[in-house]
Amino acid sequence: MTANNTRCAFQAGLLVMTLTGVFLFGTNAEAWCPFGGAEAIYTYLREGNLLCSLGVSNFYALGAVVLTVLLLRRAFCGYACPLGAISEWLGVASRRFGMRTLRVSAKLDRVLSLSKYVVLAAILAATWQLGELAFRGYCPAYALLSRHGADITVWAYVVAGAVAAVSLLITMPFCRWFCPLAAVLNPVARIGLARIKRDSTSCTNCGQCAASCPMAIPVDQLRQVTASRCLACMNCIEACPNRGQRAIFWGPPECLGHAWPKATVIAILLACSVAAVAAAYLMPLPAFVNSRGAAPDRVASFELRIRELTCRGRANLLVGFLERDDIYQVPGAGPDNLGYYKLEAWPDPVIALVRITYDPEITDEDSIKRAITEPYYGMAENRWWLSPFQIEGYTTLGFEPENQ
Amino acid sequence: MMRTKQTVTSLVILTLFLTAAPVLADTAEETFAKGETLLRNGDFSAALQSYATAARADQSNPEYMQHYTMMRRIVDLRNRLNTETNPQRWEYMAKGLRAFYASEQIYPDLLKLDQELHLRLKSADSAAMLAETQLALDQNAAATKTLSLEPSEATEMTQSLLGIALVRCGKTDSAKQIAEKLSLPGDASPSVTYAAARLYAATGDSARAIGLLSACFQAVAPSQLEGFKSRAKQCPEFAAIASNPEFARALETKSKVPESKCSEGSSCAGCPMSRKCPKSQNDRK
User: Fold this and answer.
1) What band does B1 get if pLDDT is binned at 50, 70 and 90?
2) What whole-number distance in Å separates Cα of residue A89 and Cα of residue A168?
3) Out of A167, A307, B47, B133, which could bridge A90 as a Cys pair, Cβ 3.0 to 4.6 Å?
4) Which among B267, B274, B276 has CB closest to A310?
């Protein structure tokens, strides 16, 4: 089996696994999107909560991808990204059917490559400004992995269709020029460890390596490929007529050795994926944090399991109930009495975990639970807010109205 | 023999009890419906008991529990209102109760509370609230009296309601004069715009009424739009123009404003206010 076939099988396996997870088991693929981590990081650091639909798993996924990039450059794009795989396969298929691949001049390629930084800047600016996933409505990967519910827009399909159509004519256009994740990874990839190396003594300068590179890297003119866009796809090695004499090979910088087995790429990618999943389960950072006041010397905390705490909007609503200013006001809360409390929540479609830390000198668990579950009248809006939250194992049934 | 007789009798009683029990016991749904009826009749304590029974019988239904907690709060507020000495707290409680009575259309309690609110607050707003209830109860002469304010105190809302009351009392010419003089500010609230639409409909200016009704619907938050539309369909002032196709078109108007608070949906995806969510919550604090 050639390296290219192995890579293709790995890509196909991951894609099938992802699609099975999404469509058969209802997994939220968005929670594992590394670009989601990049989009969410600012809001998380500033406000302590994640953008809607994302989880801390996005940060671990981003961390794992950055680690692979440090070791392997953009091997993630060449081996694991579903969009990259489909785009590449479409290009291969079109050539098999006799369609000509359009070559873009090196100068135009360089100019177009800058587009992804513009795309990234626009997405991050819009996302951080609006506090919501601004790119999701246009994301071709989301069009593929979204389960096609109410939250997908026609624009995402239009972009996905355009990417697919252009991929038939130009090799991996989105990955090369417009992918915002590539823009995030490129600066890291520049210092990536592994690289393609060319032995100029046994190289015949046939140019096959450069011609086979999907990212249009002029491999035949370099001793080492340190370009950040290298996908570690090994197409150049496969294409080399002199590969038996090691005219071209893959490995670490000279100081760390000569060549690495090609299977190292897959081993590292798998190890990083497992590490990301393990980290998400073993170190589940809260997806929503809200606190007020200064922590006193002595604090108490308790955990609740709450139904209907499904998203960030609902977590904000929970904060609204905790900071109510009526008879069920948590002592120490409310606009005039800045008592300390801290809320950490893991919103979940079924049952969410919530940890509340409070000052036991001024309040207690029961007051907090009642504040969460009792209806609230907002005089400004002249409207009653019924609490949608149900705390597992807690009911106010049997509590009688006072003064009855 | 005696023992056999006793055993048979016990079995018969047990069988009768077991077969009759499901028939006699109301389902949670029925008990809840009974609570709704009791509430409409103004029997708050009995409604509370019914909601509690329904919530206890079907704890998986969050609606039952929500109605129970809401009802308990209302009963609590009713109990506290008469003894509350802090005027600000009293107003908060009274307005909370008023919002509930109005939404459930419990007019006898609403009228009593509005009268007390107006007696204490003596403002154009309290007059408008009382007059709206009086109009809903067809106490039009009383509404006219309530709205007879000094010109300096009158607002667009009180004038609109006064015009409606005058039409209902047969004084259409006076109402038309009010309608001609009425000038709504650009930032008029949906409630004021709605009242003005009612006045124009009552005085026969259907084009203006429909235009204002559309403007009102556009300015209402999505979660409250259906409530406004349902009120418009039942409103006697709009009955004369109900067959007008323009009126039907106005009822199709969509909201053009974002939700002011979390719409309490199951997901933020597609929520019109998700981008403003944190700020919106801060506004409430």
Assistant:
1) low
2) 9
3) A167
4) B267
Which of the two residues, A53 and B248, has the higher pLDDT score?
A: B248
**Is residue B208 a contact partner of residue B200, using CB atoms and an 8 Å limit?**
yes
**CA gyration radius, chain A:** 26
Q: Does A96 touch chain B (CB under 8 A)?
A: no
pLDDT score of B240 more than 80:
yes
Q: B75, A316: Cβ pair inside 8 Å?
A: no
Residue B266: pLDDT band with limits 50, 70, 90: very low
Q: Which residues of A touch B45 (CB under 8 A)?
A: 404
In whole angstroms, what is the distance from residue A26 CA to residue B213 CA? 44
Residue owning tokens 């953008």:
A51
What pLDDT was estimated at residue B263?
Answer: 45
Q: With 0.90 as the threshold, say if the pTM is over it.
A: no
Partners of B92 on chain A (C-beta within 8 Å) are 326, 377, 379
Q: How far apart are CA B285 and CA B81, in angstroms?
A: 24
Q: What are phi and psi of A353, to 5 degrees?
A: -95, 135
In the structure, how many helices (H) and strands (E) does chain B have?
Answer: 16, 0
Q: Is A195 on the interface with B (CB under 8 A)?
A: no
Residues A286/A332, Cβ–Cβ less than 8 Å: no
Helix-strand-coil percent breakdown of chain B, rounded to 5?
75, 0, 25
Distance from CA of B78 to the nearest CA of A (A): 9
Does ipTM surpass 0.85 in this model? no
With 0-12 CB in 10 A as exposed, 13-18 as middle and 19+ as buried, what is B87? Answer: exposed
Among residues B259, B58, B91, the alpha carbon closest in space to that of A385 is found at B259
B70 to chain A, closest Cα gap in Å: 6
Residue A225 has pLDDT above 70, yes or no: yes
End-to-end CA distance of chain B: 78
Q: Is it the case that residue A162 has pLDDT exceeding 50?
A: yes
Residue A342, φ and ψ in degrees, nearest 5? -140, 130
Calculate how close chain A gets to B266, using CA atoms only, in Å: 7
Highest mean pLDDT among A243-247, A316-320, B166-170: B166-170
What residues in B contact A377, CB-CB < 8 Å?
92, 95-96, 99
Show the tokens assigned to A151.
Answer: 């939250």
What pLDDT shows up at residue B284? 34
Report CB contact under 8 Å: B79, A312: no
Reported as a single tens digit per residue, the pLDDT across A80-130 is: 999 999 999 999 999 999 888 888 888 999 999 999 999 999 999 998 887
> Domains of chain A: which residue ranges?
3-282, 288-391
B71 contacts B94 by C-beta, under 8 angstroms: no
Share of chain A above pLDDT 70, in %: 95
Q: Which of A312, A380, A398 sits opposite B268 (nearest CB)?
A: A312
